[in-house]
Amino acid sequence: MHSKSLTELQRGLATGEFSSRELTQHYLDRIQHLDSHYNSFITVTAEQAIAQAVAADQRLQQGPQQALCGIPIAHKDIFCTEDVKTSCGSRMLDNFIPPYNATVVEKFNSAGAVTLGKTNMDEFAMGSSNESSFYGAVKNPWNTDCVPGGSSGGSAAAVAAQLAPATTGTDTGGSIRQPAALCGITGLKPTYGRVSRYGMIAFASSLDQGGPMTRSAEDAALMLNVMAGFDPRDSTSLDRSVPDYSATLGDSIEGLKIGLPKEFFGEGLDPKIAQIVADAVAELESQGATVKDISLPNTELAVPCYYIIAPSEASANLSRFDGVRYGYRCEDPLDLFDMYTRTRQEGFGEEVKRRILVGSYALSAGFYDAYYKKAQQIRRLIKNDFVAAFEQVDVILGPTVPNPAFALGEKNNDPVAMYLEDIYTISTNLAGLPGISVPAGFAAGKPAGLQLIGNYFSEQKLLNIAHRFQQGTDWHLQRPPLPGHSITEFGA
Amino acid sequence: MSVEKSDIEKIAVLARIRIDEGEIPEVVNRLNDILSMVDKMQAVDTSAVEPMANPLDASQRLRGDQVSEINRRESFQAIAPSVDEGFYLVPKVIE
């Protein structure tokens, strides 16, 4: 059952081939037996999942239901779940039981989806390797000595290892697309404002966006159909109608104009990944797409710009963790100041503290113009690059990440080296555009991702192109070896 | 631009994060690595560029001043570190 797509699972449930209870139990068993190898879950909600499955089975007996009714999924532990611990990968929230559901969780619950549990992540979504989690690093199912990427590393590993058919993730600078690329799955970051941020613990509010992590574009479309939509509870949610993302998957891409930004193919890109991207371009050309060389001249400013904007917003957002209303509080505070400062010293990990300090510095008196205002101006230049590019092409294509998954511990002591791994994904968040990563090959035996970036609200088009690509290739159908076995057939 | 020990001590107070004396040199080095990376921005002339706060240049949506949520004080207080009679308790501020 764990090799079936969401569409196949939907059909199996509708025809009575298996029940949601059987399907849910199957996945719970897999998590129990296999997740010790990956550490992809922080919390498994077995009892609640069975109860949801039983309820879904009753609904399914009454006739046709929404697409995901009875299908088990897992949520990144950044989405608040009522009465279920929501840690955000942090000691600060290790004891936090939210009294409400995130809108995304509410939408999946209403559709009848079953929640298997909450997936591991970098602390407060700050990281590209999942090593900053209070609950320990996640291991890449393709090579357990390597990182799965981050911050949605648990969500990516769970899908790759077939511990969940689909998961939710969030993407602030690449946190859906980068782990999707490193784990060989499909990950979509929608347009800023497309998916509600209500109940999604905030990191950088002008960049954060939730999205689906799945095996295929077809599955991602089914997930986005549930997730997307206007939410009055999110002040930056956009009031636009939601198309049926599944309806246009098979459309022809004849005449599609693809832009290849020269800045995405320069120094630092693994030559094998460059070849993988070239092969993917050839596949799309064989289906009638045309290719044009373009330029996004301010690309090299994206990482510097992001590492002012994101930490600045984070320093403001994370000021709420003060040990007063919920979450961790230090023992025996001497006074209020001691309580604040020691709660935050002990409750936050190193990377989170580092970013709060950078943000506090960038926003402090005398430095605001040089850092925060400057970064906001650079941000507009980066957006303008994309606006100009989309006057010439329909979609932008390139690698998702410059290198395949690196070894656990390799970049842990060099934050700047880790930051630079996000060079191709960050500019999309700064511009607020949608992007998708799809599996496109293997470099040194590890998955490599192809990234497509679309214009605002072009998720339909991105899913259509990704689906057409997956019709012509089988990279998304490859599965990692069972734990303890090595992989040789995709060697370098 | 770069920071030194006294800057870190000041920022730590602003950010309400305690940093042990022995950790400060490491924090100084790491922050300077990041600041030297972001300094690339300073070379760009942005004098004519309007700062961008929202990717779609959207403004904050306002709603009518009407009660839309129910009072859930008890469930919110149930997860607090320390409460008494509906109040959140913190160390004494006024002697």
In terms of structural class, how would the helical and strand content of chain A be classed? alpha/beta
Q: What would you call the quaternary organization?
A: heterodimer
Please state how the strands of the largest beta sheet of chain B are arranged side by side. Answer: 1-2
**Total number of strands of chain A:** 11
Strand content of chain A: 5-15%
Low-pLDDT segments, ≥5 res of chain B:
none
Any idea what the radius of gyration of chain B is? 22 Å
Quick structural summary:
The complex is a heterodimer of chains A (492) and B (95). By secondary structure, chain A is an alpha/beta fold.
How does this model look, in words?
The complex is a heterodimer of chains A (492) and B (95). Chain A has helices spanning 6-15, 20-34, 46-61, 103-111, 153-160, 177-183, 217-227, 271-286, 302-317, 336-347, 350-363, 368-389, 415-420, 426-431, 459-472, and strands at 41-44, 72-76, 114-119, 166-171, 186-189, 209-214, 257-261, 290-294, 395-399, 435-443, 446-454. By secondary structure, chain A is α/β, with parallel strands linked by helices. Chain A has one domain (1-492): Amidase signature (AS) enzymes, CATH 3.90.1300. An 8-stranded mixed beta sheet of chain A has the order 4-6-5-10-11-9-7-8, sandwiched between helices. In chain A, strand 7, helix 8 and strand 8 (290-294) form a beta-alpha-beta unit. The longest helix of chain A is centred in the C-terminal third of the chain and has 22 residues, at 368-389. The radius of gyration of chain A is 21 Å and the shape is globular. Residues 487-492 of chain A have low confidence and may be disordered. Helices cover 33% and strands 4% of the residues of chain B. Chain B has a two-stranded antiparallel sheet with strand order 1-2. Chain B has helices spanning 5-15, 24-38, 73-77; strands spanning 83-84, 87-88. Chain B has a domain at 5-42: Histone, subunit A, CATH 1.10.20. Chain B is mainly alpha-helical and 95 residues long.
